[in-house]
Amino acid sequence: MFSRNDKISSRQIKRLLIFDLFGASSLLLPAQLAKSGNGSGLWCILAGMVMAGLYLWLLLACCSQASSDYLGYLKESWGGFLSRVFYFCYALAGIFTCAWTAKLLAELMCATLLETKEFGAALFVILLLALYGGTAGLEARARVYEILFWLLVIPFVIMLLLCVRQVQVIQWFPLSVENHGVGWAQFCNGAWQCFAAFLPLTFLLFLIPHVQDGRKAGRAACSAAVISGVSLAVIYLILLGIFGSGALAREAYPAVTLMGMVKIPGDFVKRLDAVMVGVWFFTLYALIGSGLYYGVNALRMSAVKSGGCSSQNRSQKQKRVQKWWFFVITAAVYGIAYGLHIWPQAEEVLRESFYVAGIPFLVLVPVGSLFLHRVRGL
Asked: Which residues lie across from 179 on neighbouring strands?
């Protein structure tokens, strides 16, 4: 029998974060980085990893000083009103992350698996699954990802190894920023995009109270960030070596295209790309579930004084209220995701707003909290 004490292990937290970090970054970033010019995209990934390491240190410093949960820590630093405003902003970040990722996964399914291109139906099914996962709780989600981890990793690694023989190393060069008219401005833009891919590490702020051994959570998160960053670099180099920077930049989902190019001896699988798209289905679904789960809980905690993380002693009435929160927010997510699909300009505005305002918010709030804690001697 599994325990239901609202706690997860450090191993589970690592796999949760790997799923959250890997999906969208491996699907979209290689094509975006190819526009930076040959191997300079590799330096963008490394720069993003360095910034992610500093950000992770910042998050762990906040978690180590928190006496209870992150909301209580913000209250000690900023007071009750501002802490709830910040939590509301965190909730918006989670909800919009959920909507954007759900839109991406629905479009991926329509492009690779569904002939009728029923975006609305695909989006509905995805969010219905996310709703079920969110109401099931954190422990249930952690167990599912723990089971799926090696079932997805082993076939994917084998596929990448089969692709290595097609790599033309000459296409990685020149490994410099100043090449083919590409300068430092584009490099900084690519590094900023890579750093943004690591921002699901923010979920660690809400995960720490649920970890059985908090001391191991930092090492688990660090391991997840390193594994995801190295995997992204390897995938980028393989794609760059096979497609070249020009062709790679024109691909919508280059990693999925690559899976379709692999030939297994015996040719017993005709649509290997359709089979391997399951890797991105589950990783993107993980990010959808995380965004929905933490977004709903952060919104509840910012709006309801007695709100908080679920506990074993909650009444049945509180559980029903939480489910209604999930139903309402999931419906809102559906509308946002469908709107992003219909109006690509809205998605571009959302992306630019996140780069300009969202990332500074996620970084500066922990920085300010640490500073205020030190000034006040807390």
From this structure: 182
